[in-house]
Design brief:
Helix content is 22%, strand content 34%. By secondary structure, it is of the alpha+beta class. Strands 1, 2, 3, 4, 5, 6, 7, 8, 9, 10 and 13 form an 11-stranded mixed beta sheet that branches. The protein has a 5-stranded mixed beta sheet with strand order 11-12-20-19-18. Strands 15-14-24 form a 3-stranded antiparallel beta sheet. The longest helix has 27 residues, at 133-159.
Length: 446
């Protein structure tokens, strides 16, 4: 297998402003441009690109190829942390080529570059490029594998002419899961919905480059297929099975594990049972991802991530009005006053797979975990592993709800904070991968 080029959707917006610091060719026409540029969609649904005040392209898709591969271009006002509580905009620099295409009535800027160069940015965007070498190597392997597995999945679906189903909807139940099936014009997006890619804006280090180079082409494999290696920030003590978060398909290497060297004493770890889950979530058992070590956390948490400090155990409180208004806004359904939030089904990590919302006007069960997190937060709830306390009941209507929760993220696969702790304790990257991905084997594709 040759090292592939990949296409990353960087920004979807009404208009895209960018700067070409060197000459680029336009759509293989031989025309060369550089300078300050802006792209818009016309009333007749064409892409128009102007540079230095002059129109240089009008058509269906604009592709800009660099004369010098070593000089990056800049895209202004790229959105990072889309729909998360740290959402913001920043200017970012990118190597390689630039495509500008129409998508969802707007424009999308797509960066085309070699996969290994992309990975150097990912492990510098997902965490500090100054992280422990074994953490960086482990992350390079899983980021490469996740990407190539997604490309392979899309190819197989296209060849089989299959549509991808990601919801089950009934009158009293809505179950949705969110993957990357909506990306059809490029391979992956650049934000947390896929994996963070912020070009070369974040400082590359020799460590980041070395981690990618020394694991070049290496992925986790299982039964002849590239592992769909998932990861997030902190599991809360136990990891979750893939099928409880995304599509109902089991992966032997993405099953629940204890995120610790040994089993915590005094706990029944069958967290599918409500009484066990409640005790686990309300307490703070030892785990690799349960750390307050600022040196370790600074390896994993970028500046904006460090705005979140309660990742292992957290609390969120809502008044009756805040919660009922929020649920109505996020679901599009008027439940009336909220009487209760009832656990219907939990996964192995204690994460809710199904939650029943009981209102004075409507009762409905929702799932899976990200649907629950999106419905109960203005951005995203840290995780769906939570228990609910109702306070100040007036005629059967609580005036306040408090959610006590565990972990940050979907709960499947590797956990960056846990892996950072393991690296700091001397575990090799191979040992880190073996801990989080049971039955997977490390192999070289190219």
């Amino acid at each position: 297998m040759n090292k592939p080029l990949i296409q990353v959707g960087v920004l979807n917006d009404e208009e895209i402003k960018f700067k070409l610091s060197q000459e680029y060719t336009v759509n293989d026409t031989g025309r060369k441009i550089q300078g300050d540029c802006i792209a818009r969609v016309t009333d007749d649904n064409k892409v128009v690109v102007e540079c230095n005040g002059n129109e240089i392209f009008r058509g269906d898709e604009c592709r800009l190829e660099p004369i010098d591969e070593n000089v990056p271009f800049i895209i202004h006002d790229v959105i990072i942390g889309v729909k998360f509580h740290w959402e913001r905009r920043e200017d970012q620099q990118f190597p390689g080529s630039l495509r500008i295409v129409r998508e969802h009535g707007k424009l999308t800027a797509v960066n085309i570059l070699p996969v290994e160069e992309y990975l150097q940015s990912v492990i510098s965007s997902e965490m500090s490029a100054m992280s422990n070498m074994n953490l960086l190597k482990a992350h390079a392997v899983i980021s490469r594998g996740w990407l190539l597995a997604q490309i392979d999945k899309s190819k197989k679906l296209k060849e089989a002419s299959q549509s991808y189903t990601s919801s089950i909807e009934k009158d009293d139940e809505v179950i949705r899961w969110y993957d990357r099936e909506d990306h059809t014009l490029y391979d992956v997006c650049a934000d947390d919905h896929c994996q963070r890619y912020q070009g070369i804006t974040k400082a590359y280090t020799e460590s980041a480059k070395r981690a990618v180079q020394e694991t070049s082409g290496m992925v986790l494999m299982h039964e002849g297929e590239i592992c769909d290696a998932r990861y997030s920030k902190a599991c809360g003590g136990l990891t979750e099975n893939f099928e409880n978060v995304w599509e109902p398909k089991e992966h032997a290497y993405l099953i629940s594990i204890i995120d610790n060297a040994e089993k915590p004493q005094g706990y029944d770890l069958d967290l599918t049972k409500e009484e066990n889950a409640e005790r686990w979530i309300r307490e703070s058992p030892s785990a690799f991802c349960n750390t307050a070590d600022n040196e370790i956390l600074s390896q994993v948490l970028m500046d904006f991530d460090q705005e979140t400090t309660d990742f292992y155990r957290w609390k969120m409180s809502y008044s009756q009005k805040e919660l009922s208004d929020l649920i109505a806004e996020k679901s599009g359904i008027d439940f009336g006053d909220i009487r209760d939030l009832l656990p219907v089904e939990r996964g192995y990590s204690g994460r809710l797979i199904k939650l029943k919302i009981v209102g004075t006007k409507k009762t409905m069960t929702i799932g899976k975990e990200l649907e629950i997190r999106r419905t109960l937060s203005p951005s995203h709830l840290y995780s769906s592993a939570f228990v609910v306390d109702k306070n100040n009941d007036v005629n059967g209507i609580p005036r306040e709800f408090t959610l006590t929760g565990a972990g940050w993220g979907h709960g499947v696969g590797l956990f960056q904070i846990g892996a950072a702790v393991m690296g700091a304790r001397g575990y090799t990257y191979e040992e880190i991968l073996k801990h989080y991905f049971k039955d997977a084997k490390l192999e070289g594709l190219y």
